[in-house]
Each structure stands twice: as structure tokens, then as C-alpha cells.
Amino acid sequence: MNPYILTILLFAMGLGTTITFASSHWLLAWMGLEINTLAILPLMCQSHHPRAVEATIKYFLTQATAAAMLLFASITNAWITGQWNLEFMSYSLPTTLVTVALALKIGLAPLHAWMPEVLQGLDLTTGLILSTWQKLAPFYLLLQINPSNTSLLLILGLASTLVGGWGGLNQNQLRKILAYSSIAHLGWMILVLQFFPSLTLLTLLMYFVMTFSLFISFKVNNSTTINSLSMSWSKAPIISSMVPFILLSLGGLPPLSGFMPKWLILQELTKQSLAPLATLAALSALLSLYFYLRISYAMTLTMSPNILLNALPWRLPSNQHTLPLAITTSLTICLLPLTPAIITLLTL
Amino acid sequence: MLKILIPSMFMLLTTWTSPFKQLWSTILMYSFLVATLSLTWLAMPTDTGWFYINNYMAYDPLSSPLLVLTCWLLPLMIIASQNHLAEEPENRQRTYISLLISLQIFLILAFSATEMIMFYVMFEATLIPTLIIITRWGNQMERLNAGTYFLFYTLAGSLPLLVALLIYHSSMGSLSYLSLTSLPLTCSNLYANKLWWMACLLAFLVKMPLYGVHLWLPKAHVEAPIAGSMVLAAVLLKLGGYGMMRIMIILDPLTKELSYPFIILALWGVIMTGSICLRQTDLKSLIAYSSVSHMGLVAAGILIQTPWGFTGALILMIAHGLTSSALFCLANTNYERTHSRTIILARGLQMVLPLMATWWFLASLANLALPPLPNLMGEIMIITSLFNWSFYTLILTGLGTLITASYSLYMFLLTQRGPIPHHLILLEPSHTREHLLLALHLLPLLLLIAKPELVWGWTA
Fold first, then answer.
1. Neighbours of B141 (CB within 10 A)
2. In three state form, how does the secondary structure of A206-255 look?
3. What is the per-residue pLDDT across A109-165, written as a single tens digit (0 to 9) for each?
4. C-alpha B91: how far from chain center
5. Locate the NADH:quinone oxidoreductase/Mrp antiporter transmembrane domain: which residues (chain B) (predicted)?
6. Ranges of each domain in chain B
7. pLDDT at B460 over 90
8. Under an 8 Å CB criterion, which residues of A touch B?
9. Could you give phi then psi for residue A225, rounded to 5 degrees?
């Protein structure tokens, strides 16, 4: 893509999110979300492949619906309370409607159906932007509103962790797997939103780091299916040996850093006397772990110098910049001992 | 404590920076040094109480035998793995050794943890190197299934444990071992308390394993390479026993009624898995089921909550660790020669490898709990305390002992005695390395006859 166009689009995406961050008026927040959506659309269909265009259209329709619902809810709130401020939503109808609209925007179950299909149509980099940057603005809004109904967020969260686990089990396309992984992690974030919002932010940031590592690892191998990962040991052996750790970190296994958000969320939930919910959410993480483990089996744990699973690709010297991957992989693996420091940072 | 832990951590560095020709010798030397230093932990000037190293790591008479066993096992694993890794590329050999060393580090941290969450994190952390060892270096296709079963059985048991520990923490304020004795969760007869009790114990029961949830163990033990089998049998199962012993303190009033079905299940498991051993065709599978059988007895001993029960459980854990690991090494000597685990394909070995037959003999005798070995001491103490709890358990435990003796003898007779099969033409003579390995397993066992006080914990 033309670098000027790319710059404009990326700036516009940043602008949209920043406008939402800076806003205390609902109309401005909605405007930021819309700018964000519109800016990413050309990025999504830049390859002009029909599948990409289909993904773009699906994304546009769902995001537009969500934004319209958001606008409707804020207008209702303005009608009832007479003011447009983000924090002062005290009636249950607008609040619930906003929550559901934002759930559609980020892809929480049961409003998740667009996510795997949209991600499947995109290339890995745009998919990464979709999974990470696009979640920031809606989460900011979710953090601002006081939830009217305690159980709504819990239902959304638990359903997302379960759907994210079960949905990914039958996939062999990596982007769909990443979509379901995203849904599951978003579920964890929503579970604790009303009790300890800083933990939501922590989970979001940890998820960004882990999923960045995973997306970029897949991009380095230029692979989009599990089968094509099996030759990655010959292209990039060190990345192949690190990916199981990234995957297990996404699965929330101690002593990797992915355990930290899960642990803290479970702690918060048990403090709020929601222990059965905590157990259910923890066990649903096992479902996701199964398909992460399957990917790591294909990529690393079954490599053998004798078996050619595909034709050997040409091994040319690579110009890829892997420093961000190195940084995020280190963070994904080694951040757990810093938990006390991170908790202190959160509670400041 | 740190003089063991920090050198172990730096052995990781040594693995990657040693010149390749000296890799195995260097690592072996350092791990033996660490193991020898760890023997100082066995010297306990007082019988009870903790030896505080710092706020986060401590050891007491319960954890020090297990810590010494862990440190002792690393050089043994390295000796055992040397042969089958010899043809692998250099980096993979280094990776394998790094996995073994990191496993030891996690195990040291687990056994010396002073707080339950630290123990939990390290308990789970040991899963990852073991998973990688089993699935990457195992030899058959079934190893992937084995790794999955291993990981998911253990995790499904331990995630409720995490929630249970967090519940305890939120109501009692602390999970430090020091304060656990004075803070039992007050019991009201709510169903939720019983679920909490179950959640606390399930992880350890799966790890031990208890008979009903033992399915991961034969798969994992059989498919793992020799070092994986050794560490699984010798130490990782004991993590379950150790955790159970630690957590029993806070479970107190509920355990009197709730442990009933699990004791029965454990004892029934002793008989069932023992009987299955008599019908096994796969040598490693036989030893794996024998592990389930012995650990069933350990589980019953711990759930009884008497001093003799705990002592017997700890002694049996240590003795079984050494014995089971020795048996796996012996099975591996067969496997490296014939590349098959089928028992009947490698029989009558006393004719061919008479010195190895000595080790087979000693290990089989240890497995069937011959006096005066510590295996017997552990079993007798557990059986006695079970008899004290209820007379009828004697039927189950007595039958269990009989079946244990039968299959151990069966294994010995089938592999060593009798005519050599006609197809065994070319077997390498026993390596000195293998003799050393087995001597290092069985010598501590024989020495423990003289001073079992080292390993009998704080209750006797």
C-alpha cells in the first residue's frame, strides 16, 4: 500500500482511539469509535481478495450496528437524565444497551460470531491490529460506565470463555484459532470488570503482549494453517522453540506470565464470593489450552529431521525485524515474578 | 538452601556454554556436587520445626528427604540419558539437559516453598518441562496422547485447588505454612465446605495418583524417555503426596467423614492395579501400574492422618522413588538393546547379562517390600495404622501385599530366569555406566536400612 495512504490510515486509527480516550461526551466517544472503524476498513481490504473484502464488509456491518446501538443508548440516556456525560449513566436500560453494544464491538459471546470469519479473511498483521488496537477504545468505555446488572457482565464473560474454548477446538486455520483465543481472553477481562477494573486493564495488556508474540511468530513463518507450521523448525528454529511457551502462556500455565492475570482474576472473584464461577472459568481455560497444545505439538514437539511433512521451502536470508518479537516473547515468558510490583502499580 | 538453588540455576548456563565434548561430564560433575551438598539437608539437629533459610524458602523433616531425593535424581537422570541422546544434534542434547535442570529447580522451589501459592505455582511449573520431555523425546506415536492426558488430568485437578486456596486466603488471610497449623477453616456442615475440601485434595489425588484418576500415569510413564520416567516416578508423584501432607492440616474436622471413600478407593486401587500388573505384556507399563499400587498405599496412609500413617507414607515415598526409578532404568537397559518393551521378547537375561540380574533381583526385592528395606518399613507402618482405623482394611492391604509380591516376582522371573529366546543373538554387554546408575539407586536404599530416621519425617 502507498506509504502515504498507510500513514494516513494508521494516524486515523490512532486518532479515533485517542478521541474516545479523551472524551467525556457520548457523541464524541461514538465519533472516535466510528473514525476508528472507518480507518481500519481500507487496511482490511487492501489485498482486494474477495475473502478480504467479505471480511471487511462483515466487520463494517457489525461495527456499524454496534455504534448505532451505542448512539441510541446514549441518546436514550440523554433523554432520561438530560446530560451526555460518560460516567453518569444511572438508568439500567441505557447502561445495559451500552454494554451489549460494546460487547458486539469487541466480540464477546454471544455476540462473537463475526470475529472468526472476519479474522480469517485478513492477513496476519491486520488481524493483529484488529485483535489488539481495536479493543482499546471499547474497553475504555466499558471501564467508564457503572454496570447496572451484575450478572450481565458475568454471563458475557463466562459465555465468552466457554465459547472461546469450544469454538477453537475444531479449527485448523490459525487465524480462526486466534479469534477464538481472543474471545476467550476477552471473557476473562469482562469477568472482573465490575470488581477490579485495573485487573481488566492488566489482562488486556498481558493479552496484547502474548498475542503480539504469537501473531508475529506466525507471520515470520508466513503460515496460516497448523499444517504449514510444521516446517517452521527449519526456517526459524529458535522461534519454533519459543512458540510452545507463548502458547502455554496464553493458556495460562504457571510459571509463565499468562498465569498472572488468571490468578489475580480468580483471586478477585473468590473475594467476591463467586467461587463456583471462578472454578468454571478456570476449567474453561483448559479447553483453550487443548488447541494451543495441539498447535505446539504440530510446530515444535514433533519435529524430526527425517520426516518431510511438506516440500522443503527455500531458505533465504531473512530481513524481518524480529526485535519486537524478542521483547514481547521475553515478557510473555518471564513476567510472573514481577506480579507484586504490577499489583502495586495497579492499585496506585 | 541458596547454595543448592543458585548453582542449579547456573547449571543451565553451564549447559549452554560448555564445549560440546565435555558437556555430559561437566554437567554430571556439577550435578553430583549439588547432590552431595544437598545431603546436608538431612542433618536435622532438632526433630520438629522448620529450618528457615529466608522468608520464602524453608525445609523441615518432611520436605528434606524429598529435596535430597530430587537433587540426587538429577545426576542419575543424566547418566541414564547419555546413551539414547548420543546421536542427537548438539543443541537438542543441550535442550534436553536444560529441561532436566529446570525441572530440578522447580522441584526444589516446590518442596522448599513456605507458602501454598508458591507451592502451587511450582507444582504446576513442573508440568511444562515434563510435558516437553515426554512429547518431544518419547519414542512412540502415542506420546502425544500421553502428554495431553498428563497435562489435562493434572490441570483439571489443580485448577479447583487454586480456587480453594484463594478461598482459604480470602477468609483466613494467609497461606503461609507457619500459620496453617493455627488456622483451620471453621467447619459448618455446608455442602460448599465439602466441595472446598474436595477441591483442596483433588489435585494431589490426581497427581499421586489415586486409583480412579490414574489413567494418565501408565501412558505418561510408558511413553516418556528414561529420564522422564525416572523423574515422574521418583519425584513428581511425591509432589502429590507432599502437597497432601501439607494441606491436611487445614482440612481437619471434615476429613474424618469425607476421606472414607478415598481411602477405600486407594486400597481397592492397590489390589486392582496389582492384579493388572500380573497381566501386562509391556515392561514399563508393569512398573507404571506398580507405581500406582504403591502410591495408593501412600494415599491411604496420608488420609488416615495418624503419626504412623504419615511416617509410613513418607518412608514409602522415598523408598518407592528410588525403587521405581531403578526399575525404570533396568527396563531401559532392556529397551536400549532390543528397542522393544515387550517382556517376553527379552527373557532369560540372567544367562546373558548376569551382573544386571543382580540389580534386577535387588530392585524386585525392594519392590515387593522385603525386610529390612525401607519399603517394608513404610508399608508395615501404613498397614498397621490402617488396621488401627478399621480391621477390615487388613484384608485389602494383606491381599495387596500378596499381589505386589506376586507381580514383582513374576517380573523378575520372566525377565531373568528361564531359557533365552532364540532371536536374542546380539546383546551388548552391560555398560559400566548402567551398573553405576543402578548402584547409585540401590545403595541409598540399602543405607537407609541403617538409619531410617533420616526419612521418616516429623511425626515419629
1. 9
2. HHHHHHHHHHHHHHHHCCCECHHHHHHHHHCHHHHHHHHHHHHHHCCCCC
3. 899 999 999 999 999 999 999 999 999 999 999 998 878 788 999 999 999 999 999
4. 29
5. 113-404
6. 259-459
7. no
8. 237, 241, 244-245, 248, 253-256, 259, 263, 266-267, 270-271, 275, 278-279, 282-283, 285-286, 289-290, 293, 297, 300-302, 305, 336
9. -125, 165
Write the pLDDT tens digit of every residue in B189-238.
788 888 999 999 999 999 999 999 999 999 999 999 999 999 999 999 99
Under 8 Å between Cβ of A295 and A224: no
pLDDT given for residue A307 in this prediction? 53
Q: Grid cell 506376586 — which residue?
A: B406
Please say whether the beta carbons of B382 and B309 come within 8 A: yes
ipTM of the complex: 0.92
CA-based nearest distance A275→chain B, Å: 7
First vs last C-alpha separation in chain A:
43
> Whole-angstrom Cα distance, residue B66 to residue A166?
40
Residue B433 pLDDT exceeds 90: yes
Give residue B242's Cα distance to chain centre: 10
Chain B residues in contact with A302 by the CB 8 A cut-off are 135-136, 144
Rounded Cα–Cα distance for residues B127 and A44 (Å) = 40
Q: Is A200 exposed, middle or buried (0-12, 13-18, 19+ CB in 10 A)?
A: buried
Whole-angstrom Cα distance, residue B8 to residue B107?
Answer: 11
Q: Which of residues 167-206 of B touch A (CB under 8 A)?
A: 167, 169-170, 192, 199
Answer yes or no: is pLDDT of B320 > 90.
yes
Q: Which residues of B fall within a CB distance of 8 Å from A249?
A: none
Q: How many helices (H) and strands (E) does chain B have?
A: 21, 2
Flag whether pLDDT at A202 surpasses 90.
yes
Q: How many CB pairs under 8 A join A and B?
A: 80
pLDDT at A309 over 60: no
Whole-number percent of chain B with pLDDT over 90: 73
Q: Do A255 and B95 touch (CB under 8 A)?
A: no
DSSP, collapsed to helix, strand or coil, labels residue B175 as coil
Between CA B102 and CA A255 the distance in angstroms is 12
> Is B135 an interface residue toward A (CB < 8 Å)?
yes
